[in-house]
Amino acid sequence: MEYINTRQKEILYLLLSEPDDYLVVQDFADRVQCSEKTIRNDLKAIEDYLKEHSNAQLIRKPGLGVYLNIEDQERAWLSQQLHTEHFHSRQRTDEERMLQIAYDLLMNVKPFSAKEIAAQHFVNRSAIKKDLCAVEEWLKRYDLTLVSKQRLGLKVEGNEKSKRKALARISDLIDNTEFTSQFIKSKFLSHEVDFVTKEIKSLQKKHSIYFTDETFENLLLHTLLMIRRIKMKQP
Q: Does 27 reside within a domain?
């Protein structure tokens, strides 16, 4: 299935919003601030996307530019599709930021400030403050406290067992287990994940134990986090 990135969606939006006019490559380049060569590659990706998802045609005419040949009804439908995809993409970004903040707070031994977090995620401090409030409430479930230390920053206080439990249940923050599982795995090298997976399967075979997919995944994440915490001298 063909997908288009955020920049390509913006180019497609521009084509959809100019129904009776040709647009030259420079128009797109100025709009999304990239080179004409990049725009030409993007237009090819958009063309492939339209072939799979729409009856619209991308018409290119030398000396005139690019034009989107599309029925009005389909124009409205495609605009709605792009809006929906953008909303879900934005939601995913917000969820990932929340997970990253919680993960960093739980994993880091040293405190760090809200200003540093805001700079890391390229958002304003009010957005980070909202995330931190949600994380703080969630941490209370595991008897953990988010402490703000003057001139130092934020730090999670509590025992190691509680921190590991929170890390393993970080999916409760956004209510999306599959996404969270991929997020945690992305913090480890692929050979680390493969090695632990192989060892758990070996354990199953040796002792004739059956795990459901969910149990296997939970055990994998617990083990990966346990190894990481011990390496960080947090036994």
A: yes
